[in-house]
Amino acid sequence: MLRECGNMSSATILFILDRLQRAGAPLPCVAWAFGPGLCVEAALLG
After folding, report:
1. 3-class DSSP string for the chain
2. Residue 31, C-beta contacts closer than 8 angstroms, at least 6 positions apart
3. Could you give the CA distance from residue 21 to residue 26 in angstroms, rounded to a whole number?
4. Looking at the 3D structure of the chain, how many domains does it have?
5. pTM exceeds cut of 0.70
6. Domain enclosing residue 30, as ranges
7. How far apart are CA 24 and CA 5, in angstroms?
8. Rounded distance, CA 17 to CA 31, Å?
């Protein structure tokens, strides 16, 4: 994603979720996001 779209910061996860949905990725999946100051967020999507 970074190579194709550049650094989008927090919006990156939305683009990745869109790609997973279009690809028919199996659920559940775990999403991890790393933010400034080593802030980490996670979500179980299903």
Report:
1. CHHHHCCCHHHHHHHHHHHHHHHCCCCCEEEEEEEHHHEEEEEEEC
2. 13, 16, 17, 42, 43, 45
3. 9
4. 1
5. no
6. 2-45
7. 21
8. 9
Token digits for 23?
């690809």
- Structure token digits, residue 17: 């979720």
Q: How far apart are CA 31 and CA 18, in angstroms?
A: 13
Q: Which two tokens stand for residue 31?
A: 């999403």
6-27: b (≥16 Cβ within 10 Å) or e: eeeeeeebeeeeeeeeeeeeee
Per residue in 1-46, pLDDT tens?
A: 678 877 777 677 788 888 888 999 888 888 777 666 667 777 777 7
Q: Which of 2, 25, 3, 27 is nearest to 13 (CA)?
A: 2
